[in-house]
Specification:
The structure holds 2 protein chains of 2 kinds.
Chain A lengths: L1 H13 L1 H37 L1 E7 L5 H13 L3 E7 L1 H11 L4 H5 L9 E6 L6 H12 L4 E5 L2 H43 L1 H9 L4 H42 L11 H28 L1
Antiparallel strand pairs in A: 1-3, 1-4, 2-3
Chain B lengths: L3 H7 E12 L2 E12 L3 E5 L6 H8 L7 E6 L2 E2 L8 H6 L1 E4 L11 H11 L4 H14 L15 H14 L4 E5 L7 H16 L3 E5 L3 H5 L4 E6 L2 E6 L2
Helix pairs in contact in B: 4-5, 4-6, 5-6
The chains are: A alpha+beta, B alpha/beta.
The complex binds adenosine-5'-triphosphate and magnesium ion.
C-alpha cells in the first residue's frame, strides 16, 4: 500500500499543472454547491426559529370592559398551543410606538385621542410547525368574543417558506449538475494524465503488472485531489462566511450570530463528497482507457 | 534422442503452424517450433525476417493470426485479460528498443517489476541493487534512462528482465548497442541465467554471438522458418 501511495504522490508532483486544474475544479464546484447549501441551511433555521414561537397581536374590540377582557384572557390561555399571553394596553401601545419612532413623537402628541386598541400579545408554540396549524390557532382566537382582529406575519411567512422551498429545489438541481460537471472535468483531466503516460502504462503491462496495480495509484491520486479540493473550497467558503458575518455583526449586532456554518460532521461529509468526485472521475476515465 | 513423447512433455513453448499478418503483409508464415525447458536458443535472420514478431507473439505483445501457441501449459488463444499478467511474468523481456520508462529513475524502472509482483519494499531495494551490480550499473541507479548511453540502457533492460525471476528470458538484440567486451559481459549474464535452469531465447543477427554458443539456431527469412541448426 505504501508503494501505491508513493507512486500517487510522485505522480501528483510530476503533473503540477493537471493537479492544479483538478484541485481547482473540485474546489470551485464544492464552493458553489456549499454556498447554496449554507444559505438554505440558515434560511431553514431562521424559518424554524420564527415558526417555533409565532407572536400574534390579538386586538380587542374598542370599549371592552375589564371583566370581558379577563374572560378573553382566560379563554386565550385555554387554547392549545398558546404559551404566553401579555396584555398591552392602548396607552402602553402608544408609548411603544413613540419609542419606536423618536423623531415623530411630536406628531403623535398632536393626537387628541389614542387611536390604538387594547391588545394581547400572544406567543404561540404550535405542536406542529405547519402553516395550517398556525392558521387554525389564529382563526380560533379571532372567533373569541371581544376579539377584533388577529395579526401575525403569516402571509410574509408563507411567501418566505415557498421561496425557500423553490430555492431548495433549484439548489438540489444546481448541486447535482455541479457534481456531475465536476466528475466529468476530473475524468477528462485524468484522461489527459493517462494519455501522457500511455507508454509507461504499456510498459508496466509488458513487464507483468496487473490492471489493478496500474490503477490503484490513479484512484488514490483522484481521491487525494478530491479531498484537497474540497478542503480548499470549504476554506474559501468559510473565509467568505466569516467576513460576511462580521460585517453583519457591525450593522445588526448579535443577531448575526444566528447565522451558522456547517457542523464539523457536515464538513467531513463534504470532504467525502469531494473524494467521491475524484474517485468517480478516475473510475470513468480508467474504464475507458484500460479497455483500449 | 529421447522418444518423441518425452520431448513433447518437456516443451516449454510450442508453436504450431503459427502465422502473423499485419494487414495484408505476412510477418510470419506457418511456423512450427518447440522450445524446451532449459534451452538456449537463437532466432536469427535478416532484418525484417520476423524475429521480433515471433517474440511478441509469445508474450501476447501481438495476437497471432493463425495457429496455436502453448507457453508453460497455457494456451494463448484461451487466455483472458486477467491472466495476461501471469503469462508475462513467466518471461523476462529485453526489448529491442529497451522500453525503459523515461520519467523514472533506473532504480524505479527495475523496482516496478518487483512491486508489481507484490514484493516487500525492503526486499525490492536489496534486489534492485544486486541486479544493478550484476550489470555494472550500480552507480547510475538515480539516473533517468534518456541520460544513459544506448549500451547503458541495454544493461538496465537486462537487469530488469532478470528482476522478476522469470522462467524464460526473451532477448531481442541484447548486445545490439554494446562494444564487444560489454557484449561478452551481458552474454555471460544470460549464460548464468541458463546455467541456473532458465530458458533463454535470443533474437539476433550478431553471428559472433551465435558462434560463442553451440546451441540451437532458428533461421527465419521473410517470415518463414528456413532452417534449424543444432539438436
Ligand atoms: N506493427 C507492425 N505493423 C505492420 N507491420 C509490421 C509491424 N511490426 C512488424 N511489421 C513488419 O513485419 C515484418 C517483420 O518485422 P520484425 O520486427 O519482426 O522483424 P525483425 O526480424 O525483428 O527485424 P530487425 O532485425 O530489423 O529487428 C517486417 O516486414 C515489418 O515491416
Ligand atoms: Mg527486431
Amino acid at each position: 500500500m505504501k508503494v501505491y501511495f508513493k507512486r500517487a504522490f510522485d505522480d501528483i508532483l510530476a503533473n503540477v499543472f493537471l493537479t492544479a486544474i483538478t484541485v481547482g475544479t473540485i474546489a470551485l464546484a464544492i464552493l458553489i454547491a456549499c454556498a447554496f447549501a449554507l444559505f438554505f441551511v440558515n434560511a431553514g433555521h431562521m424559518l424554524n426559529a420564527w415558526e417555533k414561537g409565532v407572536r400574534m397581536m390579538v386586538y380587542l374590540k374598542p370599549h371592552t370592559s375589564e371583566a370581558a377582557r379577563l374572560d378573553t384572557r382566560y379563554r386565550l390561555t385555554r387554547i392549545d398551543g398558546v404559551k404566553k399571553v401579555v396584555f398591552v394596553s392602548r396607552q402602553e401601545a402608544l408609548a411603544r410606538l413613540k419609542q419606536q419612532m423618536p423623531g415623530r413623537a411630536g406628531l403623535l402628541d398632536d393626537l387628541r385621542e389614542n387611536p390604538l386598541p387594547d391588545a394581547f400579545e400572544v406567543t404561540v408554540v404550535p405542536g406542529s410547525q405547519a402553516e395550517a396549524v398556525i392558521e387554525l390557532i389564529a382563526r380560533r382566537i379571532s372567533s373569541l368574543p371581544g376579539v377584533d382582529d388577529v395579526e401575525y406575519g403569516k402571509r410574509w411567512l408563507r411567501r418566505f417558506a415557498q421561496l425557500i422551498n423553490l430555492f431548495r429545489l433549484a439548489g438540489f438541481a444546481v448541486g447535482g449538475l455541479l457534481f456531475m460537471a465536476a466528475v466529468f472535468i476530473v475524468a477528462n483531466t485524468v484522461r489527459l494524465v493517462l494519455y501522457s503516460r500511455r507508454e509507461e502504462i504499456e510498459i508496466m503491462r509488458l513487464v507483468g503488472a496487473t490492471d489493478r496495480f496500474i490503477k490503484i495509484p490513479f484512484y488514490l491520486e483522484g481521491t487525494i485531489l478530491g479531498a484537497v479540493g474540497a478542503v480548499i473550497g470549504l476554506a474559501v467558503l468559510f473565509a467568505g462566511y466569516w467576513t460576511f458575518v462580521s460585517r453583519l455583526q457591525q450593522e445588526l449586532g448579535d443577531g448575526a450570530k444566528l447565522i451558522g456554518f456547517f457542523s464539523p460532521s457536515v464538513c467531513l461529509a463534504i470532504v467525502a463528497a469531494g473524494m467521491l468526485v475524484g474517485w468517480l472521475g478516475c473510475l470513468i476515465s480508467l474504464k475507458q482507457f484500460m479497455k483500449a | 534422442m529421447p522418444p518423441r513423447e518425452d520431448r513433447e512433455n518437456q516443451a516449454l513453448i510450442r508453436l504450431f503452424h503459427v502465422s502473423k499478418r499485419y494487414g495484408a503483409k505476412a510477418a510470419l508464415s506457418d511456423i512450427t517450433i518447440d522450445f524446451e525447458k532449459g534451452e538456449f536458443a537463437f532466432i536469427t535472420g535478416p532484418s525484417g525476417a520476423g524475429k521480433t514478431t515471433l517474440l511478441k507473439l509469445l508474450y501476447l505483445g501481438e495476437a497471432l493470426t493463425e495457429g496455436q501457441i502453448l507457453v508453460d501449459g497455457m494456451n494463448l488463444a484461451r487466455i483472458n485479460r486477467r491472466t495476461v499478467p501471469m503469462l508475462r511474468r513467466k518471461f523476462g523481456i529485453v526489448f529491442q528498443d529497451y522500453k525503459l520508462i523515461a520519467s523514472m529513475t533506473v532504480f524505479r524502472n527495475i523496482a516496478l517489476v518487483l512491486e508489481a509482483q507484490g514484493k516487500r519494499p525492503r526486499l525490492v531495494a536489496k534486489k534492485v541493487r544486486s541486479l544493478l551490480r550484476n550489470v555494472g550499473m550500480e552507480d547510475r541507479e538515480n539516473a533517468l534512462p534518456p541520460s544513459l548511453s544506448g549500451g547503458e540502457q541495454q544493461r538496465v533492460a537486462i537487469a530488469r528482465a532478470m528482476a522478476g525471476e522469470p522462467r524464460i528470458i526473451l532477448a531481442d538484440e541484447p548486445t545490439g548497442s554494446l562494444d564487444p567486451e560489454a557484449a561478452d559481459a551481458i552474454f555471460e549474464l544470460l549464460k548464468d541465467f541458463h546455467a541456473r535452469g532458465g530458458t533463454v531465447i535470443i533474437a539476433t543477427h550478431d553471428r559472433s554471438l551465435i558462434r560463442k554458443a553451440a546451441h540451437r539456431v532458428v533461421h527465419l527469412k521473410q517470415g518463414r522458418c528456413v532452417a534449424i541448426e543444432g539438436n
